[in-house]
Amino acid sequence: MIQQEINIAGSKVQYIFNAGFKQLSKVCDKSSTVLITDENVLAAQPALFKGWKTIVIKAGEEYKQQAAVDKVIAQLIELEADRSTMLVGVGGGVVTDIAGYAAAIYMRGIKVGFVPTTLLAMVDAAIGGKNGVDAGIYKNLVGTIRQPSFLLYDINLLKSLPVDEWQNGFAEIIKHAAIKDAVMFRQLEKLDLEFYMKYQLPFSELVMRNALLKTSVVRKDPTERGDRKLLNFGHTLGHAIENDNKLAHGNAVAVGMVYAADLSHKITGFPETVRLINTIEQYGLPTHASFDIKKAMQNMKHDKKRQRDSVHFVLLEKIGKAVVHPISFKKLEQHLAADY
Amino acid sequence: MIQQEINIAGSKVQYIFNAGFKQLSKVCDKSSTVLITDENVLAAQPALFKGWKTIVIKAGEEYKQQAAVDKVIAQLIELEADRSTMLVGVGGGVVTDIAGYAAAIYMRGIKVGFVPTTLLAMVDAAIGGKNGVDAGIYKNLVGTIRQPSFLLYDINLLKSLPVDEWQNGFAEIIKHAAIKDAVMFRQLEKLDLEFYMKYQLPFSELVMRNALLKTSVVRKDPTERGDRKLLNFGHTLGHAIENDNKLAHGNAVAVGMVYAADLSHKITGFPETVRLINTIEQYGLPTHASFDIKKAMQNMKHDKKRQRDSVHFVLLEKIGKAVVHPISFKKLEQHLAADY
């Protein structure tokens, strides 16, 4: 077990790596804790929840809506949760997003901790304090930024995960490497998904490296005025095509990264699109998808990163170095129409 | 016009006293601002909203629920509000609570300003950053604490207010005096509601004094760990009887203050219950109400100030000095049963 306390925007966040789920009872008191998970996690690992008060939500991004939060609030009232109650999200990104959001607004804020059970949540979704729900098709339109008290990592929880969920997580890992860590990118190029699924030690090191990479970006820029924007690499188009085309998040991001790399080539002269494409393929992720350009453009106009007539697009200068570039919607549509 | 910038918990809040509504267009840009008001304010003063994008919500505490916020969010999407949009709540406490909450969660936080149109909102509800909605009968169970960018005071907006709305506001003014300001209490004793409704200058001074008194308490304790709790004087019982008995907030608080004064007498030896009762009556507020004790106790158990088996009750030691005292539910019920 590796414990590390990191201060993010004035909040102390406890990172507990290489842990087992059982250690949760040492981190928080069963009597004043409420777990929140989804039907899938509960069905896959019912033993985890024995003896804990647990709220179960429906599984899937399509239920990441205010209605789910309303139900969680109603159950917190029923369980007589008060200001000293700790809420713990045990699940993937949808669960941690909803748990973090519900904790942020219940009684104007109770403590929350996360036990991510997907690779995506471990290296990305559960880190950084962003929480919330979608509003219709608009992703994460509602929520807050608020840090959890702790994150507990048990990579054994990933064992029951299907391969495409691993791939999903690797999309964010490749993203991290592409924007911030050329050394990790070379490591990813040399190895592949099978290797990491098989060997626990290098895998848990990779998870920790990514969790800490994201944490360090968030620490320096908790409110997303500067460097944190770089984490949106692949996400502007990714988000715009994800829901309409029923793509897994990692798949949408992978497609978005390839598109952003193409655009980078045109604007910054980024010369390594092929390296990025090869790595994405190596981890079983798609490099393109067919989608309705007009609809994608419309969705982008509702993107939170929008600024009147333009959008902040994250481009690469080289592997390991990204920049934010404002692009007008007009120009973007021309690029999209030319490429797809 | 008196402008004052006050730093509350790291946020700069602009106070604009003795202003006219028209000055709003100097504070924020019409093209990137969305006003939010309720049907009553719109009907009473339609001219205010000419040329402003405006979201209109239903009037009344019974609509201060998540469903109203959901509608506001949907309209913000329709209006293509983005992260640079300023939301401005123009109305009473329900409007400013909903505007503040919607702004806190839309795109994980956009700027918000308030133009309070009731005395209660001017001296209390709009100040301090608390926002949110009720969950069923549980008041303010959901929300955040987040400071507005500005507060604009135009006391001419109160002219169309019925007398009981003025009384409502004076309940909080008397509360402020009772817990923090013996000099103001003596002034309130010497004068009466009629006087303040008639003479603008002393009235606008009273409003400013109260706004700044609450602000100063909030500044020192934004997250309600210490002194800010004192502002709950009269509110623990007040909240517990308000909705069930359809009492106006000020009336519920007035009744709650008298009860808290009685309890203070028993616990701290507070000797001035009669002065408090007289002043409350002088401003047209009730000093008692009939209510179901069992129901009130049950509501108190869902109060956010609850801590397992006890509640933090605000008591007076003397006029101008309040203390927080934890009282067990058991003891509280005995007191209630003896008194009512």
Description:
- Two copies of one chain form a homodimer.
- The model of chain A has no long low-confidence stretch (mean pLDDT 94).
- In chain A, the strands form three sheets. A seven-stranded mixed sheet of chain A has the order 1-2-9-6-5-3-4. A three-stranded antiparallel sheet of chain A has the order 10-11-12.
- Chain A is globular.
- The longest helix of chain A is centred in the middle third of the chain and has 21 residues, at 200-220.
- By secondary structure, chain A is of the alpha/beta class.
- In chain A, strand 3, helix 2 (39-44) and strand 4 form a beta-alpha-beta unit.
- The first copy, chain A, has helices at 24-27, 39-44, 66-78, 93-105, 119-125, 163-180, 182-190, 193-198, 200-220, 235-242, 249-267, 273-282, 293-301, 329-339; strands at 2-8, 11-17, 33-38, 53-57, 86-91, 111-116, 133-135, 138-142, 150-152, 306-307, 310-318, 321-328.
- Chains A and B meet through helix 3, strand 8 and strand 10 of A and helix 3, strand 8 and strand 10 of B.
SS class of chain A: alpha/beta
- Order of helix and strand elements from N to C terminus of chain A: EEHEHEHEHEHEEEHHHHHHHHEEEH
Please tell me the overall pLDDT of chain A.
Answer: 94
Give the low-confidence spans of chain A.
none
Tally of DSSP helical segments of chain A: 14
What is the overall shape of chain A?
Answer: globular
Describe the biggest sheet of chain A? 7 strands, mixed
Q: Helix proportion of residues of chain A, in percent?
A: 40-55%
> Which pair of chains forms the biggest interface, and how many residues does each contribute?
A-B, 32 and 32 residues
Please state the oligomeric state of the protein chains shown. homodimer
Ends of chain A: how far apart? 47 Å
